[in-house]
Amino acid sequence: MSLVLTQVYLEAKQKKDLAAKAKATGRNSSDLLREAVDALLLGVNPEELRQLDEATRRAESDIKAMVKSLDANARHHKAFMAEIAQLRASAAQ
Question: Full-prediction pTM beyond 0.70?
Answer without folding.
Answer: no
